[in-house]
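Example 3.2
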Amino acid sequence: MVQAGNETYSVEADLPREVSVFPVSGALLLPGGQLPLNVFEPRYLEMIDDTMADDRLIGMIQPRLDGALLASGEPELCSVGCLGRITSLSETGDGRYIVSLHGVARFRVLQEVAAARPYRRCRIASFVGDLDTGAGAAEVDRDGLIAVFRRYLEANQLEADWDSVAKASNETLVNAFCIMSPYGPAEKQALLEAADLKTRAETLVAITEIALARESGEDGDAHTIQ
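Structure, written as tokens:
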């Protein structure tokens, strides 16, 4: 069962079979994770308006990694994305929306459908197993994950709120590390498509080990990750 805002998702019938999608390169939303969005393009402002009047669910997805385009000039989409429920929305003074999404479940794109609206919609098949919150969390190598994360921070002169890290569940920790990671679209897609939480943690560790091996060791100012 996934609790997102005031809504609970526990069975396949709770999930849509068609959803409006928001293609953003490098953005990663995971089941149970949080993702802030800065929405400014008019068609996606309209999508948010329509979604708020409906089920508050949108599909976060990346454009296809090879840059392939449709005949319309729109980017083709990756095959897997993640449903997110809008849990907060605020308007800015310059026509933007600041939106917070709570990840519900991943989905596979079955077919893009013609839409009367300017934004894109897809028919989807959701990963129902993602509704089993925390599945596989006990199998995560928490110590190994934290150790490699600490090494990455030290190599880049960054800091973390270690009190919060100590209190976080394995699922929260894996999601947070994945979402805040500075890696590119291909790595983010690999993290999204990992079979389970344990595999996702192992994938993140492997990607980070590669990054550390390439680390230049240049000095810089310290920052704090909250």
